Amino acid sequence: MVTQIDQTHDLLRVSGLEVGAAEQQSTQEWLQRHSVEALRLTVKDLVQLGKLTKPKPDAETGKPMPHLQFDAADVIQFEYRLHQAVQAYTERIKWCLRGSRKLFGLVQGERVAVCVDCSDANMSFGRAETLQQALLHLIDEQLSSKQSVYMMSFGTELQLLWPNVMDVNCRTLEEAKMFAMTRQAAGGCNLLKALRHLSRLRGVDSILIVVGSTPDQPADILEDFALQLSAGRDLRLHTVAFDCASQISNSGLRRLAEVTGGRFHCYSATSDELIYASSDISGLLQEIDTTQEVLKKIGEMRQGMLDSTLVSIMNEISMEVDKLPQSRFLPRPPGHDEPLKVEPAKFQPASSIDWLMENGLKANKMDLYQILAPNAYSYCEGFVPIIRKTVQSQVHEKVMAQFPWHDGSVKNVHVDLAQLFEYQKQLGHLVKLYEQRINWLASSSRKIFGTIVERNMLFLLDMSAANVNYLVHIQHSMRMLMEQQMSNKDYFNLVAFGSEVRFFSKTMVKVSEASLQAGWKWILGLECAGSRNLLGALRKVLENEEEEKHRVYPEGLYLFTSGIPDQGAEQVSAYLEEKAVGRDLRLHCVLFNVDDYDKDGAIPGRYASITKTADSLRFLAHCTGGRFHWFRETGIIESDDIRLIMSEIDKAVNFSRRAKTLIDAVRSKYEEMFPDKYPKALGGGSGPESGGDDDPDGGGGGDGGGGGGGGAKPKALPPPKPTAKSLARQSFVRDALDSEPPVPKALGLRPGAASSVKAEPLESVRLNRRCVKSAFYTGERNRKGQVISDYQGGKSVRKAVGRAEIPDKEDQVTSKAWFKRYSLAKLGLDLYRLVSGPDCRHEEKLVKPLGKTVSAKYCSGLFPTVNVRGVTKHLQYTPVELQSYDAECVRALKRYLQRLHWLLSGSRRLFGVVVETRAVFLVDVSGSMAPYMEELKLALKALVWEQLYKFRVAFNLIAFSSGLRAWSPGLEPAEEDSCHAAVAWIDRLESMGNTATLEALEAAFATKEPVDAIYLLTDGKPDTSTSTILRSINRLDAGRNIAIHTISFNCCDATANNFLQCLASETGGRYHKVVEEFDAKLFAHRLLEESQLDDPEYPNLPAFEGDDLSRLAKEIDSARRFLAKSKYFKDLYYETKRLRTENLGARENRMVPA
């Protein structure tokens, strides 16, 4: 209701703004707000007006059919809005057919370039005057309102009005009109040449191309060039078929506009029907047809309502009812269809494995064995010749507690009661922390999915027909997940699979508020159908070509399902393991437990019990290092995250119980050692059972006869209390015993001359070790005790196994530079170095009386003897340490294989790695290169975009055969325009002539700008003598230090390859030979998946001749040899242990008397 005149003016002004904005919009933009779907006038929206009532059974099949009831007023209002829409579309069509818009369509953009066809066919037979008048109308009505304009015409050659884009003013408009009036016939229709000129034109955002004849070039060539023209630029082509009778030309112009996202307009002076094929008008006609269909449906509904046959009406619109989401017919929670309410994430969650690495018992040094290790001592065993037996030490039996160790042995442990009490208290705090973690994992969306820990993830949603009754449950679960755990991620995607696979997006989508809302809207429209084709879904995801171009790969796949897949677990796991080679990819399986399926419902592709289903999904998750989560509405049934925490709690409880056992053992010892302080341990010293049997004199009976007490025996006297002198004397004796050297073991009989052999070399080390003691009060007056707390000795020369910490991101460096940081030696994984310590040396000395070499006997039979690089060593690494070495070496080997695949992919397969910032590329295009020119062009284009443009390398390209063809006179920066120009130059390369290698190198050295490297690609020997070339290069490179990297391309001539190797080595460059027919992924699969790690011979790597590849292959071979040697060491260790056990048993049997 308008109450003031100012308000009326405001409404009129706003209405005028809307009309003005509509005049600047194309039909596609205008329909975004005025289409039938935008106005909510589709048949689906009509069905939404109905109310669901009780279904009625079909008369023939008996199947219940949906029953809708409509309000007559709603239907009338809906029909009225449809008629209004038809009227608006008709008015828009009339507006598009007025003035210059009928001739050229609506020209959009503020900076417009106009390109007019002035061929003989378009300017003859009176067509020139028509075109000139049309151009004048275009300038007056549309171009005069633009910011800037550019005018040109084309025939066989180009005719330009201005060299650059000009601002619109009175002078430029008059010049444009004069240019339009002076157009004459100019030969053919060279549209490709015009497009090439426009590709170099800058400062325009729209190009109007007016064509009235058939172009000289085929449509596919023009279409490919238009794609290159618009690549990386927001530039659209507006093509106009001006009174052109050729349908082939019209369709070609339409495709030319569509590939660039532009519009097509068709004008004909003889037929008004052709204009309706224009982009602006055809879209409006489609909307009118849609409204007519909806009006027809309303008429059918009314006819059915008059006849009171609602069932027949429902049959007619049943297809539209079926298009409704299946969740519409299921009960839904409140606010189910509302937009997401995304919660900001406060921290980045971690899986329980990673969390326990920081908060577990070992991470907090709360392992009971870690606590007791400093004060735990092993038994000493030795052979006593007198009694001919092997005995154990008994020194600490009375002052230490015996405790079973984790390796099965028993150790003597000194127990610090205060330390163990504090340890139990800290264990209690850790258990409370673990319980909090479990409660957190069992809350919110983590109860359903667990923790989402990857930055890039993809969700696989089971939309099989068996889940039709649980569709709302799936949607609600995804809603909770997207609201609570997705805000701090990088990329995501959604995939629904049944018998078919549907993607939310073709590639991974950046996480944002808008993308999450779009994903939620997509989930609301999902429907359940088909079976569970999981393998098909995984293939669609992991073999997505669009994702390969996007280069953002999912790190975690989350499978949300309720049943077993159609394929077997072995097939799916084999495919996943193959695709996971060289990639950080994990499949996490989430199983939601549903009730037994209805026997009348959909039949699944495979049936399995819920237990077998869980076993299958658990196997799939664990084969890729993922996690398994199983839940139902009442709570979590199984979760790998919670299971790990529970295992840590059980371990803590077990440690606490064992600590209590130690404390009880120490208390009982104290009760035995101090009976006066703990009288209950000996029965209190009185009573009927503590009689004279313990009297050492045996005369208690005689004395008892004269004493009172009714003949009771006197109790035994307590032991005398120790005095200060007795305590000092005992301490002096203990110190003297501790200071005595240990008795050496008896050796077997041997000749007396053998005594000259050196004793055990490690004996002096043990004799020189000084024990460190700590004193403590016993709690009885001033009594003190001492405990050996440490043995001070020299620094260990034993080398620890390194860790294969290599970043996943590839460095743009040479293999030589890369291995300076990540070789096996730098990572501490050189097996020969690890086992070559000075404490492993096996001594052999010549004994002159015996006339032969005698080995040291102190370690015979204890450690395996191995030959390491010609030196005999004793292997002191245990199988456990060797297994740790194997794990790290396999990690390094996998990373080496990943880099090998990287070096053999893309442009690096032909050119290697470009590491310099200023380079000249010399390309051989002689006649012998003719069969490989297409491959060479593709590789050069990939080089330009993949390495030069990406790493901003200033470059120049020189093609040589009998002569030279340079792309640029000097180095050009790797910018977008220069790269496009380089690609266009590469397309024009042709092979012919000889191989002028020396002239090409001289041209590269003549570059004015500083050059870091020259890349020479050729397929054979040069025309000039190789010695002449080497002498010339030494002269040209004097004082400049320009590296020449040579590339042998399909060259089998050993002499030519030797020349290229010599040229690269003399200039400090690298030699590269293109590898043909080698699949790095297949080699990695055979090596890692077929358990061939311990075989250094199969599968074989090809003999790489390039410097980078040969260094990498050498390191891969070293890793495989080390793994095979490690396996041999472990087998030798077990064999030595077995022989030692057999010899010891045989010796004991011989010593036992008959």
Beta-strand percentage range: 5-15%
- The residue-averaged pLDDT reads 77
Gross CATH architecture of one domain: 3-Layer(aba) Sandwich
What Rg do the Cα atoms give? Answer: 45 Å
Largest pleated sheet = 8 strands, mixed
The CATH homologous superfamily of one domain corresponds to von Willebrand factor, type A domain
- Overall geometry: flat
Write the CATH fold name of one domain.
Rossmann fold
Helix coverage percent = 40-55%
Q: Which residues form runs of ≥5 with pLDDT under 50?
A: 12-20, 305-316, 680-717, 735-767
Terminal CA distance:
125 Å
Number of helices: 39
- The CATH class of one domain is Alpha Beta
Which structural class best describes the helix and strand composition? alpha/beta
Number of strands: 36
Task: Characterize the structure shown.
Residues 677-759 are annotated as: Disordered. This protein is 43% helix and 15% strand. It is an alpha/beta fold. Among the domains are: 11-92 and 291-322, no CATH class; 108-275, von Willebrand factor, type A domain (Rossmann fold, 3-Layer(aba) Sandwich), CATH 3.40.50; 451-596 and 607-626, Rossmann fold (3-Layer(aba) Sandwich), CATH 3.40.50.410; 725-747 and 758-792, no CATH class; 907-1074, von Willebrand factor, type A domain (Rossmann fold, 3-Layer(aba) Sandwich), CATH 3.40.50.410. It is flat. The protein is built from 39 helices and 36 strands. Mean pLDDT is 77; it is low at 12-20, 305-316, 680-717 and 735-767. Strands 17, 18, 19, 20, 21, 22, 23 and 24 form an eight-stranded mixed β-sheet that branches. Strands 5, 6, 7, 8, 9, 10 and 11 form a seven-stranded mixed β-sheet that branches. The chain has a six-stranded mixed β-sheet with strand order 33-32-31-34-35-36.
